Amino acid sequence: MSESITVTTVAEGVARVSWTGEQTLDEVRRVVAEALTEHPRVEAWVAPDDQFGQRLATWSGMHREGVMRGVTATGEAYDQIVYARLVIDTPVDEPGGFRALLNSFLPRKRAIGQMLIRDRAGRVLMCRLTYKQDWDLPGGVVEVGESPQLAVSREVEEELGLTIEAGDLLLTDWMPPWGGWDDAICLVFDGGVHDEAIVATIVRQEREIRDAQFCTIEQIRDRAADFTSRRIEAALAGRSGYSESGR
Questions:
Q1: Could you give the count of Cα atoms lying within 13 Å of 205 in the half-sphere of its Cβ?
Q2: In this structure, what are the phi and psi dihedrals at residue 32, rounded to the nearest 5 degrees?
Q3: What are the backbone dihedrals phi and psi of residue 119, each rounded to the nearest 5 degrees, phi first?
Q4: How many Å apart are CA 204 and CA 92, to the nearest integer?
Q5: Average pLDDT of 197-225?
Q6: Looking at residue 3, what is its pLDDT?
Q7: Where do the DSSP E strands lie in the chain?
């Protein structure tokens, strides 16, 4: 084993690999493979600013698992990116194994599905949320592996007790980082035109929804964030396609 690479058993069945920066990728790959013959899991902790170390961990076959914040192993709090390879992982030289490796570190964009539900007067169903002051369209975050079109119908049923099948995609809007949220893609689907009486049938999920009402565009401008208002006006005007913050 290279003197610049160490392997330490940190728990039953778990080995941790560390290096000094003087090793090659082939050396790290060989050490990881050897450690897997005696441990079901081999991991490495890499500093967020150590780009070289992150490349070594990745191309030695270890999957990026996430960031441990505020690690205090040395008495001082610091963040560490956790990489690991399991003995049961598909070999990287096989297509499925290589795709899984890439999938562990490539960027993932959050997707949000929203539904534009109107009444016969042209007003839009808006929700007053518990976790922010601004009103917004009904909908929510698309789960991993879930269809955005099915997700928005699921969210509307969970939050409002309304069973409405999402129709055509009206607008794709990119939302930049805002208020502590990362950026996201918002997909607005058509929820159709319904009688105003539908509001009386709403069963709110009180943990998230304070109120739900059909609102005029003037009310939306007053109650919603400016980018939400622009998004809704663009959808109502039939400006289908792509926008950023409703523009």
A1: 17
A2: -60, -45
A3: -100, 180
A4: 48
A5: 96
A6: 63
A7: 5-11, 14-19, 41-46, 63-71, 78-86, 110-119, 124-129, 135-136, 139-141, 169-175, 184-194, 209-215, 242-244
Q: What are phi and psi of 148, to 5 degrees?
A: -60, -35
> Residues 132, 185, 156, 235: is their CA dihedral positive or negative?
positive
Closest to 84 (Cα-Cα) out of 32, 139, 22, 21: 32
135 and 210 Cβ atoms separated by less than 8 Å: no
Q: Burial of 104 by CB count in 10 Å (0-12 exposed, 13-18 middle, 19+ buried)?
A: middle
Q: Indicate whether 219 pLDDT > 60.
A: yes
The pTM is what? 0.80
Answer whether 185's CB lies under 8 Å from 176's CB. no
Phi, psi of 116 (to 5 degrees): -95, 100
Q: Are 15 and 7 in contact (CB under 8 A)?
A: yes
Query: What sign results for the dihedral spanned by CA atoms 151, 152, 158, 163?
Result: negative
Q: Which tens digit of pLDDT belongs to each residue from 15-51?
A: 999 998 778 999 999 999 999 999 999 999 999 999 9
Taking the C-alpha atoms of residue 185 and residue 73, their distance in angstroms, rounded to an integer, is 38
State which amino acid sits at residue 69: R
